[in-house]
Write a structure and sequence with these properties.
flat, alpha+beta, 19% strand
Amino acid sequence: MAVVAENYLAAVAAQGKMRVTWDKGPHANVTTESITQDYWNKAKNDTSSPSWVDVGDADGALAKSMKTHEAAFWTDYVGHAPLEPMTASRAIRTARSTSSAAASSRRGRWATSRSCSA
């Protein structure tokens, strides 16, 4: 959905008159907590994946142990999709090298770095 207008005020006025009803789709109830619980359940109960290393009897040793310790560690999900353009160039000349790379910041500014060596 888009608003096309002659100027900013007209666009804001048109946007204010729009009534949008969103279809949240089949994943409307998916939350960070539900995803974490799903992964936790798979880690504890899913035996469909083969072990990378299967040496000894870990289950038997744990059953005979007087003390055991269990801990879970996790961190926030971080997508690995680039948030800035993947651009860089390098010019190599006789006794001189110039590098240039650009990256955007959250505020849309561009940073450029250059280095020269003789």
